[in-house]
Amino acid sequence: MSARVLLLGGTGDALRIARALGPEHVYSLAGLGRVPADLSCAVRVGGFGGAPGLARYLADEGIGCVLDATHPYAAQISANAARACEQAKLPYWALRRAPWQPQPGDDWRWVDDWAGVVEAIKPYARVLFTLGREPLAHLGEVPLHQHWTVRCLDAHPGHARAQVIDARGPFTAEGERMLFKTGRYDVIVSKNSGGAATGAKLGVAREMGLPVVMVKRPSLPPAQREFASVQEVLDALADLNQRKIDA
């Protein structure tokens, strides 16, 4: 197997991995957010054209392994990667970040999708969304009795009943407490992304007795190797490079 790795990224975990990659490897971003300037590896921005386009890219570029470190909710990208690797007969590896688990005192309301979110937040007046960009497409639908705050990576215009905060984690418990108190939120909306960078909001919601509308994770394809931490990925990549040297 070629030791050239295609890293599918866009998360903080993926960036940590990318910073450890040499120039023969490729870090792929969908095009959202800022492109890091401090990487030794090649950086590719943009889509591939679905699974068939990705399979062609893997063959053309001599990729030996695909490492999926995309967001746990980027289900379509992961599905395309798994299918492309199957077509190209290449290993598909994935970093599967553990989901958050409810703790004593938590009030989580589980929903499947955006329609479930809308139904779950109906009784509330001041809503904090921490779902990323999805609510931006619905700012024209804010009910008259509600005010929304949407926290996401990029700046976006709001209006009288919607505020958009552009912010990037990690977020601290102290910062979340200040945000929650200033915004006077009575419900938080979140994806079950897992990880430490954005998990402080859940502890603060618990402290303040706030309900959390939690969107369930989508199903993701199985991988030949699944890793629970960035360190496990780095160890596997080091082993892959060592086998290349020994070959």
Automatic annotation (TrEMBL):
Keywords: Cobalamin biosynthesis, Oxidoreductase
EC number(s) per entry: 1.3.1.106, 1.3.1.54
GO molecular function: precorrin-6A reductase activity
GO biological process, one term: cobalamin biosynthetic process
Stored Pfam families: CbiJ
UniProt pathway: Cofactor biosynthesis; adenosylcobalamin biosynthesis
Keyword Oxidoreductase attached: yes
PROSITE patterns: COBK_CBIJ
Domain of life assignment: Bacteria
EC top class, as a word: oxidoreductase
The protein's name in its UniProt record: Precorrin-6A/cobalt-precorrin-6A reductase
Lineage of the organism: Bacteria, Pseudomonadati, Pseudomonadota, Betaproteobacteria, Burkholderiales
